[in-house]
Amino acid sequence: MTTPLRLESGEYTAEEILDALESGRRILLTIELLGSLQEISLRYDGDIYYCDTPTRLHKHREKAEMHACIERMGYGRSESGST
User: Fold this and answer.
1) Do 51 and 66 touch, CB atoms closer than 8 A?
2) pLDDT tens for each residue of 24-81
3) What is the largest CA-CA distance in the chain?
4) Region for residue 10 given its phi and psi (left: phi exceeds 0; alpha: psi -120 to 50; beta: otherwise)
5) Which of 1, 39, 59, 60 is the one with CA 20 to 30 A from 74?
6) Beta bridge pairs of residue 40
7) Do residues 44 and 29 lie in contact, with contact meaning Cβ atoms separated by under 8 Å?
8) Rg (CA), the chain
């Protein structure tokens, strides 16, 4: 099994996160939630995208749904805001 890719929220764009997931990487993402750091897990099994948070497991069947979730939750850096 491949070593998980460890990221901080906003380090990659949503598209870069999806590319890593689709290449078989599991992503451990550190986010700030209610004033403390939390770790979430993002993965893709070839059919379903998973977003496992401390409070809920989200599942998305479509790439566009996962992209929207990553953007809505603030996990990815804005595509237009790269430096």
Assistant:
1) yes
2) 999 999 988 788 899 999 999 999 999 998 888 999 999 999 999 999 998 998 776 5
3) 34
4) left
5) 1
6) 29
7) no
8) 12
Report the interhelical angle of 63-73 vs 14-22 (nearest 10°): 130
Positions of E strands within the chain: 5-8, 27-33, 36-44, 49-52, 57-60
Start-to-end C-alpha separation, the chain? 33
Give residue for tokens 């805001």: 81
User: Tokens standing for 58?
Assistant: 């989200």
pTM score, two decimals? Answer: 0.87
Q: How far is CA 26 from the centre of its chain?
A: 9
